[in-house]
Amino acid sequence: MTIRWMLRSAAGALPVAVVLALVACNAAKDALLDVSVPDIVTTETAQSAAGAQSFYTAGVGEFSRFIGGDRAGSSPLGLNLTGGLLADELISARTGTEPLDSRSINPNSFPVDTWIQVGNTQTRLIRAARLLAQFPPATGGAAQLALLHAMLGYTYAITAEDYCNGIPMWDAKSEEHPQTATYSTDQLNALALAQFDSAIALNGGAATNNLALVGKARVIVNQAKPATLAAALAAAATLVAAVPTNYVFTTTFATSSSGLNNGIYDWANATRNFGAVNKEGGNGLDYVVAKDPRVLIDGTKIQAGQDGTPVPTLNQYTKPDANVTVASGIEALLIKAESQLAAGNAADFIITLNAARATNAVLAATPLTDPGSPAGRVDLLFRERGFWMYLTAHRLGDLRRLVRQYSRGAETVFPSGAYFKGGAYGTDVALVPSQTETNNPDWKACTDKNP
After folding, report:
1. Where along the chain do the CATH 1.25.40.390 domains lie?
2. Which residue from 255, 25, 264 is spatially nearest to 147, judged by alpha carbons?
3. Beta-carbon count within 10 A of 173 CB
4. To which H or E segment does residue 6 belong?
5. pLDDT (tens digit, 9 = 90+) per residue, 47-75?
6. Residues 22, 26, 30, 32: is their CA dihedral positive or negative?
7. Which residue has the higher pLDDT, 31 or 308?
8. Exposure string over 227-249, b if 16+ CB within 10 A, otherwise e
9. Burial category of 256 from C-beta neighbours within 10 Å (exposed 0-12, middle 13-18, buried 19 and up)
10. Which residues contact 447 (CB under 8 A, 6 or more apart)?
11. Is 63 helix (H, G, I), strand (E, B) or coil?
């Protein structure tokens, strides 16, 4: 009898077949492909080097969906879109998506598929890593395994950044009788650090090592309390000191409509369900009027969204194969700059921010100057982070850090006041699992929804 791999769904209580994409692989890039219809990988076919490679390719593809969504199939939303919508990077231009945009989340509706994607990504990466360790290819197995560990680290880290405290995920113990466990934010961060350490220990090459180092530094900073932030930043800055400034690691999307396509291209460009925004809720950054080269928005071309909402044209991801930056040498410099700021070294803080700006001719022509106050320097740091890492699944975590680590009031950081579609912004500062998850007997609700 053929036995299909089973897992209790991250979106509900009933076990569901885990569908794993069998996709063609570009060997030169270890990239994903142009196959849209997933197939079932059976126990028999999985237990081989070829099966392990199928799981590897599917896992890498799932990670791209986790970060940047997907146009095809069920069109899952990536964390760069849903996190950006709850933060200040995007606004709703589609009826039914207002609760997330207005910080009044309805867990029974949009964005249910993002939560499903969290569980899918964790599951596929874990299973891919296990099979690859058991059935390695003739060459390159360590590099592939290191990449899977690094991607799993980011899955835990970004989930911890964006979701409430105390969420249900697979405990990764039994394949035959899978169970969920409730993980705190601290536990997710600990899992992320362990995965990054595994990736680094495998030494899978410079690109993956740097990916893991930046991810580990990101988690070290996220874990810090206000009293330990300076020490954490110093440790994180040391960790990424050797990451080249020109280093960039991205997701991989495809041009074919049947393959993995960038979700923001689909949802905010091709169909305009969401739009670029300027100073959302009074506290948001001036993404449109700043005309910053890092944020590609044409404020002179206003188009109607799906519900008629006028939105500026978003040119950040203009093609289905536009990739999303996951980690970079610029992010490493920003960690260094924040460490210098925490140490009271305002002069070097500005020098480091300008070193990042020197990589862009337009920005190099307008170097930053010291705002002259501690609060102004923090504002400048997070403004630079906001522009450098626009729509890359960083912003929601940054806004929560401003509240949690820098003692800013949530209503001075997140969009607040009157909501542009009527009513007022709510108080949510974190994503939550979908309503169907409450059917899971092992979980009932978030432990808390604090920043």
Report:
1. 6-252+325-413
2. 25
3. 9
4. strand 6-8
5. 999 999 999 999 999 999 999 998 765 56
6. negative
7. 308
8. eebbebbbbbbebbeebeeebeb
9. middle
10. 164, 165, 166, 182, 184
11. helix
pTM of the model: 0.91
Nearest-angstrom CA–CA distance, 39 and 349 = 51
Burial class (CB in 10 A: 0-12, 13-18, 19+), 357: buried
| Other CB atoms within 10 Å distance of the CB of residue 42 | 13
Contact 299, 278 (CB under 8 A): yes
Query: Phi and psi dihedrals of 290, rounded to 5?
Result: -65, -25
Closest by Cα among 199, 246, 213, 249 to 29: 249
CB-based burial of residue 350 (10 Å sphere; 0-12 exposed, 13-18 middle, 19+ buried)? Answer: buried
- Rounded to an integer, what distance in angstroms lies between the CA atom of residue 356 and that of residue 353? 5
Residue range 295-331, pLDDT digits in tens: 999 999 999 999 999 999 999 999 999 999 999 999 9
Three-state secondary-structure class, residue 230:
helix
Q: Which amino acid is at 252?
A: T
Q: Counting beta carbons within 10 angstroms of the beta carbon of residue 250, is it exposed (0 to 12), middle (13 to 18) or buried (19 or more)?
A: middle
- Minimal CA–CA distance to 66: which of 326, 312, 279? 326
* CA gap 35, 24 in Å, rounded: 7
Task: Please check whether residue 82 is in contact with residue 158, taking contact to mean a CB–CB distance below 8 angstroms.
Answer: no
Distance CA 212, CA 200 (A): 6
Cβ atoms of 263 and 71 closer than 8 Å: yes
Rounded to 5 degrees, what angle do the CA atoms 56, 57, 60 make?
A: 85
Q: How far apart are CA 253 and CA 317, in angstroms?
A: 11
The 10s digit of each residue's pLDDT in 319-365 is 999 999 999 999 999 999 999 999 999 999 999 999 999 999 999 99
* Residue 258 confidence (pLDDT): 67
Cα(165)–Cα(183) distance, integer angstroms:
8
Range list of H helices, 310-345: 329-342
What's 6-252+325-413's CATH class? Answer: mainly alpha
Contact 336, 240 (CB under 8 A): yes
Q: Amino acid letter at 52?
A: A
Residue with tokens 């604090």: 450
pLDDT band at 124 (very low <50, low <70, confident <90, very high): very high
CA–CA separation, 416 vs 280, rounded Å?
Answer: 8
